[in-house]
Amino acid sequence: MTALVRFGIFIRERQHWVLIALLVVLHLTLLAGVGTVVSLMCWLVDVGLFMLWQPFIQTERKLDSGTLVFIFLLLAGGAWSFGWWLLILWVVLLVALLGGRVLLVSHRPTRIFYLLAFAYLLSILLIWLVPRVVPGSALVGPSLDRPFAWAAALILVVMSLMPRPREIRLPSGGMVDFFYSLFIFLLISVLVLGSLAFMLLQQSTYIEAVFKTLVSMAAMLLLMAWAWDPRPGFSGIGVFLSKYLLTIGLPFETWLQQLMDCAERESDPDRFFYGSCERMLELPWVTGGAWAPAGGAEAGSGSFGRVSPISHDFPDQPLVFTLYTRHKLSPALVWHFHLLVKLSNEYYIAKQRARELQQMSYQRAVHETGARLTHDVKNLLQSLNNLCFMAQEPGDMDGVRLNQLLQQQLPQITQRLQRALEKLQVPQALYGGAGGAPSGETSTGKVGLVIAEVWWGALKQRYAHDNILFSPVVFDKKACLPSVLFDSVADNLLQNALFKQQHEDGLEVRMTIAADATLFSVCDSGSVVREDVVNDLLRAPVASENGLGIGLFHAARQAEGYGYALRLACNEAGKVCFELKRGGGAEVKGS
User: Fold this and answer.
1) What is the H or E stretch that residue 317 is in?
2) Which residues 6+ apart lie within 8 Å of 521 measured at CB?
3) Which listed site, 45, 240, 408, 440, has its alpha carbon 20 to 30 Å from 282?
4) Position 480 confidence tier, pLDDT thresholds 50, 70, 90
5) Is residue 151 a contact partner of residue 122, using CB atoms and an 8 Å limit?
6) Is 536:498 a contact under the CB 8 Å cutoff?
7) Which residues have C-beta within 8 Å of that of residue 166, sequence separation ≥ 6?
8) 302-305 and 286-293: which strand pairing?
9) Is residue 576 very low, low, confident or very high in pLDDT (cuts 50, 70, 90)?
10) Rounded to whole angstroms, how far apart are CA atoms 209 and 133?
11) Backbone dihedral region of 447: left (phi > 0), alpha (psi from -120 to 50 degrees) or beta?
């Protein structure tokens, strides 16, 4: 650590002593008067102490030759024009800086310390300096120089005895609020010049002129405070000022509209971000920009426009953006561009997620289509196995009955296989479009409907050699049902029941159907469906011991497309029933 850095740290840790020394030297300057060399030397020392105390440039910073020349010329001009008006301007500057530091301080001892310094400077301004420039000495009144010299010294003693104040850090990150400092500078300038104006125009005494100026300023501030937010139906000047600050020199609303238009036209995230950034070139300050992905972000990089020596970085985004401008931007414009970049990044992320969801939906469609076809092929294979089993044992039936059975079953198997291939070519048929009936059918149309009695007989023939009980039923002559849906549901439910029958001895499987074919059920006398499976059963794929666990889920969605509801109607030990019902169903009975 160099000696310069150590000295800077030493001064920064003792800022309150530097301020006290600055005020003491200023007090000596006032006591010496402006017509002596001692006063000028004290003021030059005061300027040096101010440079150590000022919060804008760090004390340990090394100044270049250009800055040193500027400071020398400034001091030379001050020494040449040294007088009471220069000291008034100097004190007003110090008061403004102190006011900008103290108004937002919450620590009480620190606030009291700086308020004492503020009161000292304001008192020497009104009691010592301004009376020196009044044209008529008769209007000044009695001199208060001697009492003020001792009273002001007492203020400096009290400040030196106070505990060390805390370092001031405003919410904006700096050590001086520029707006407050400028506001206080203007108020004190109005106070000084207004007092002189009253004395010259109305020949008032100095005390009377100060009082009139203070009353006038209070009245104007009260009127401005009321006009800022009056609330009797008028929005106030605060709204207009906020609108002005938000739109000053920047067509923000126009750019937002262009951003939304670009978001609607472009679905690719990279092309969208390039298009939105390229529209920034329409702003008069922008020459170009570049962006690159932040650490861990999956994004591309790019640039637009041309590079300029002045750049502004906008980090903490998925895309770290660098903006090149013709000149240095004000803090308000930087904030505007930060908001624009933030919006562009949010749109970029949304489009990335939309593309990922689209890919996931495609993969899900492929997976579910394959899983559904697997179930269809498995059911078809079971039907073929039944036919082969009957054909291998001709002693149980004569050749005519066997040929009749093959003539009935083989065309149905061929049609089911054809429908399975159609689903592979058009995956939307798996879902029934957007929640409607599958491709080629409507929930109210007659396409794919078969007579219920014919379908029931074919189902009994298909599972004639399995241990399944078919309840007797007398069908209505006009009862019809969608064969695609009922084949899919029946095959899924029966395959699951037969698999369960292989692992549970004495399990009985019973099938029933209503006379009008509005209700179809498959029941078994086995164990209940586990509670952890019931929650997702028919709503999502579930864990399965003999498949993908997706057959019933797709059968339920297919039923919805036809205007039916597949549900677990009963889940009790010895009675587990699934029902396919037209229109909907009730809650599950049992655990």
Assistant:
1) none
2) 511, 512, 513, 569, 577, 578, 579, 580
3) 240
4) very high
5) no
6) no
7) 107, 109, 110
8) antiparallel
9) very high
10) 14
11) beta
The model's pLDDT over 76-89, given as tens digits with 9 standing for 90+, comes to 888 898 888 899 99
Q: CA angle 261-266-272, nearest 5°?
A: 90
| Helix (H) or strand (E) segment spanning residue 259 | helix 252-265
Contacts of 193-196 with CB under 8 Å at 24 or more apart are: 195/130, 196/130, 196/133, 196/134
CA distances from 380 to 410, 412, 420 (A): 10, 10, 10
Q: Which of 557, 552, 540 is nearest to 427 (CA)?
A: 557
Find where tokens 């078809």 sit: 380
Reported as a pLDDT band with limits 50, 70 and 90, residue 445 is very low
Task: Give the DSSP per-residue string, 68-82.
Answer: HHHHHHHHHHHHHT-
Q: Strand 589-590's sheet: what is its strand order?
A: 468-470, 509-513, 519-524, 575-582, 564-572, 589-590
User: Taking the complete model, does pTM exceed 0.70, yes or no?
Assistant: no
CB contact at 8 A, 288 and 304: yes
Contact 75, 45 (CB under 8 A): no
Token digits of residue 519: 């209700």
Distance of CA 447 to the CA centre of its chain: 50
DSSP string computed for 471-512: PP----TT-EEEHHHHHHHHHHHHHHHHHHHHHSTT--EEEE
**What Å distances lie between residue 476 and 187, 446, 459, 471, 515, CA to CA?**
98, 17, 18, 16, 6
Helix, strand or coil for residue 525?
A: coil
Report d(CA 280, CA 329) in Å as an integer: 14
What 3-state DSSP class applies to 413? Answer: helix
Tokens of 174: 């700096």
**SS3 call for 60:** coil
pLDDT of 532 reads 76
**587 DSSP 8-state letter:** P
- Using DSSP, state whether 580 is helix, strand or coil: strand
Farthest CA pair distance, the chain: 144
Residue 165 C-alpha from the chain's centroid: 39
| Rounded-to-integer distance, Cα 120 and Cα 236, Å | 37
